[in-house]
Design goal:
The chain is built from six helices and three strands; from the N terminus they run H-H-H-E-E-E-H-H-H. The chain has 200 residues and is mainly alpha-helical. The chain has one domain. The chain has a three-stranded antiparallel sheet with strand order 1-2-3, with helices on one face. The chain is elongated, with a radius of gyration of 22 Å. It starts with a helix and ends in an 11-residue tail after the last helix.
């Protein structure tokens, strides 16, 4: 038995003895999430989405529209906040001279891709991934709608806190939602159900 094998076995025994499996999973989640985050930034900023630049550019523009139109409709018709819409630039202007422009970086593409890659890399039932991943994509998309709508409320009610809200509340919200879905996956769905034994 090599030194590495002995060390690995000791580590496994330590994890099992102190029931640290949950921390092992959380550590794996954090490592994968950070790796995807920085890999995406490198791909977007340094490589300009090579070799799929045109496809990703078009996708981000379409996704930004998919976020802008329902958000603007909700702000205007449900929240009854007066806005001036400039649909060509996907911008909402508010009565207090504040505005929100839904550009490509607001499309949610990165967060959706991050969720999909995380779920593909994480172990679990492939059959369940076929429905869980699309469900998660919808949830991340709805989270983005909530984010734009929430920021609209901040613009009109607490404009001095817009930067703080954008960077420290609504941006981390994506990761909270993705983490909660991941917990649901690990705790309830990743492992196949075992058949209950009947006692006669």
């Amino acid at each position: 038995m090599t030194f590495l094998t002995k060390y690995t076995q000791k580590l496994r025994d330590f994890i099992q003895r102190y029931r640290l499996d949950v921390f092992k999973d959380v550590a794996l989640f954090i490592i994968i999430t950070i790796a995807i985050h920085y890999s995406f930034r490198f791909w977007a900023n340094q490589m300009h989405y090579w070799p799929a630049q045109e496809m990703i550019d078009n996708l981000e523009v379409k996704m930004a529209r998919m976020v802008y139109y329902p958000s603007a409709w909700f702000v205007e018709n449900v929240l009854r906040i007066e806005i001036t819409r400039v649909d060509q630039t996907k911008t909402m202007y508010f009565a207090n001279n504040g505005y929100i422009a839904v550009n490509r970086s607001c499309s949610g593409f990165k967060q959706i891709l991050q969720f999909v890659i995380l779920m593909m890399l994480f172990p679990g039932s492939l059959k369940r991934k076929f429905w869980f991943i699309p469900l998660g994509v919808v949830i991340v998309f709805l989270t983005n709608l909530f984010r734009i709508i929430g920021l609209s409320v901040v613009v009109i009610t607490l404009p001095q806190y817009w930067d703080f809200s954008h960077d420290n509340i609504f941006r981390p919200l994506f990761y909270v939602v993705i983490f909660m879905m991941w917990v649901w996956w690990v705790e309830k769905l990743a492992k196949p159900k075992t058949a209950k034994k009947s006692v006669s």
